[in-house]
């Protein structure tokens, strides 16, 4: 089977919407544990206004102290040109830009229009190219929008086509920001020529309605090679009402491995990393492996004796 890559987003998407702000030291400890578990591509920070997303106010401090290794890449999320410039100055290994599929979410999430964001993306492409940093694009609310409802495939196709026309993208991602997608929709959206013909495809899934694993397997079945996930199932969007956490890294890796894909991830270590950061922000881990463990277990349960 084709190689599958997991992008770990817990330091950014996992922590951005929690009521308790994780200290910088805890974020760095999380990143170190993620690397130790075998994860090699980590979205560590986002460069957004600290007043709007205070949980990400220490982005530069985190990037200044992450453990640097030649086999580990750190991404920074940016929502506008200013965020891109900050990401470059902070020394990220890649930049993930975001454009929503709908005007309504562009206004709520970035206080602007899709047209203006496409202008910013074009500038971001030039800036990233000059700095020799790969630029990726995530199309948010591609599967459904909290303010629009159902999103027409034509909207996703238009954003993808315009973005690819105006910027050099190393990767294109579709995001189920509010966790409303189903496998049929996954297969259909990734079959759009404007999406399918991108250099590399990624999917970002949320577990709001418990369809994330099914959607992940559907995405892989149509050629998607990269999937976002967050240990402990942490995550959510401050500007998307009702959005639950991301698909849990340990659950996704377990399911993909059981389905025949090779992943160099220590499931026990990833589960432990999720438990540790969930304790920091005072929430219960949302992953199945945290509750039930890996299957098959390393030590099978003893058969209980029957009482006669």
Name the features:
8 strands, TIM Barrel, alpha/beta, 308 residues, 13 helices, 41% helix
Description:
The chain is an alpha/beta fold and 308 residues long. It has a single domain, classed as Aldolase class I (TIM Barrel, Alpha-Beta Barrel). It is 41% helix and 15% strand. It is built from 13 helices and 8 strands. It has an 8-stranded parallel β-sheet. Helix 4 packs parallel to helix 6, helix 6 packs parallel to helix 7 and helix 8 packs parallel to helix 10.
Class from secondary-structure proportions:
alpha/beta
Corresponding CATH superfamily: Aldolase class I
> Based on CA inertia axes, which overall geometry fits?
globular
In the predicted model, the low-confidence regions spanning at least 5 consecutive residues are none
CATH topology: the name is TIM Barrel
Average pLDDT, to the nearest integer? 95
**N-to-C CA distance:** 50 Å
Q: How large a portion of the residues is in β-strands, by DSSP E?
A: 5-15%
Overall structural domain count = 1
Provide the CATH top-level class: Alpha Beta
CATH architecture: Alpha-Beta Barrel
- How helical, in percent, are the residues? 40-55%
Strand order, largest beta sheet: 1-8-7-6-5-4-3-2
Order of helices and strands: EHHEHEHEHHEHEHHEHEHHH
Biggest β-sheet: count, sense, barrel?
8 strands, parallel
Please tell me how large the radius of gyration is: 19 Å
Total number of strands: 8
Tally of contiguous helical segments:
13
């Amino acid at each position: 089977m084709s190689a599958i890559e997991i992008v770990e987003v817990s330091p950014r998407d996992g922590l951005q919407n929690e009521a308790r702000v994780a200290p910088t030291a805890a974020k760095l400890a999380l990143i170190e544990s993620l690397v130790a578990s075998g994860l090699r591509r980590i979205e560590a920070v986002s460069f957004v206004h600290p007043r709007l997303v205070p949980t990400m106010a220490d982005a530069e401090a985190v990037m200044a102290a992450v453990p640097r290794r030649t086999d580990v890449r750190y991404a920074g999320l940016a929502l506008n040109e200013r965020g891109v410039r900050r990401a470059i100055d902070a020394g990220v290994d890649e930049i993930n830009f975001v454009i929503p599929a709908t005007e309504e979410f562009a206004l709520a999430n970035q206080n602007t229009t899709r047209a203006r964001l496409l202008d910013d993306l074009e500038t971001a492409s030039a800036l990233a190219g000059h700095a020799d940093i790969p630029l990726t694009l995530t199309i948010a609310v591609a599967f459904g929008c909290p303010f629009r409802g159902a999103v027409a495939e034509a909207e996703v196709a238009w954003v993808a086509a315009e973005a690819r026309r105006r910027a050099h993208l190393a990767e294109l991602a579709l995001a189920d920001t509010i966790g409303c997608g189903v496998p049929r929709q996954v297969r259909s959206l990734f079959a759009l020529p404007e999406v399918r013909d991108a250099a590399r495809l990624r999917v970002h899934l949320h577990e709001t309605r418990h369809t994330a694993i099914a959607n992940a397997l559907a995405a892989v079945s149509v050629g998607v090679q990269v999937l976002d996930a967050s240990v402990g199932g942490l995550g959510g969007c401050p500007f998307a009402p009702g959005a639950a956490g991301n698909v849990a890294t340990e659950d996704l890796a377990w399911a993909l491995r059981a389905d025949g894909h090779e992943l160099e991830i220590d499931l026990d270590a990833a589960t432990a990393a999720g438990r540790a950061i969930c304790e920091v922000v005072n929430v219960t881990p949302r992953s199945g492996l945290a509750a039930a463990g890996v299957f098959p277990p390393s030590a099978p349960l003893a058969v209980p004796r029957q009482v006669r």
